[in-house]
Amino acid sequence: MKISNKVFQSILFCFFLLFSISVYSQTITVSGLKTWTDTEIEINKGDQISITASGTVFANAIVSCGPDGISNRPDWDVYCVVKGKPHEGLIMKIGNSEAVFVGSSFTYIAKQSGRLYLGVNDNDVWNNKGKFTAKVSIMNKNDGTFYNITVPGIQTWTDTKIDIWKGQQLK
After folding, report:
1. Do the beta carbons of residue 36 and residue 118 sit within 8 Å?
2. Tally of CB atoms within 10 A around 12
3. Phi/psi of residue 7, nearest 5 degrees
4. Distance CA 114, CA 160 (A)
5. CA-to-CA distance for 164 and 141, rounded, in angstroms?
6. Which one of 24, 76, 134, 141 has the largest count of C-beta atoms within 10 Å of its C-beta?
7. Measured between alpha carbons, how far is 165 from 24 in angstroms, rounded to an integer?
8. pTM to 2 decimals?
9. In the chain, what's the furthest Cα-to-Cα distance?
10. Which of 24, 41, 26 is nearest to 134 (CA)?
11. Distance between the two ends of the chain, CA-based, in angstroms?
12. Given pLDDT bands bounded at 50, 70 and 90, which one contains residue 145?
């Protein structure tokens, strides 16, 4: 049985996907004036998300904080998206999931797939100013799924149904 060059390349690509780990990194500006900032990063269940952040957000004209938030104001908890966590600190959610507190450094294994959003722990942002800068790194460990792709020799292109996002590299 003779295998065409395109079919052979497709088989090699499938084995590459089976044993690959990809890392994607992007820097996101998180405005203090919005509860949520869309990172435009799609997360897959099982991805490891690592975030480091810096910057300053002002809760009002006098009080400011870094990504770890303002921890000495329990009376401001009524304004927090993530209750019991420091006001104005960096938070995240995946899709419509419940928000979690991030702070200045955070690592998390995604429990669901969806779009990654970053924000400030404040549901009343009208008087805020400033921004955080967050470096988001996503490690995608292939889940062991084998992709069986047939590329007919008479077609120029075949949709593999495998999504690759902006900035992702295949090694």
Report:
1. yes
2. 10
3. -65, -40
4. 20
5. 14
6. 134
7. 9
8. 0.72
9. 76
10. 26
11. 30
12. very low
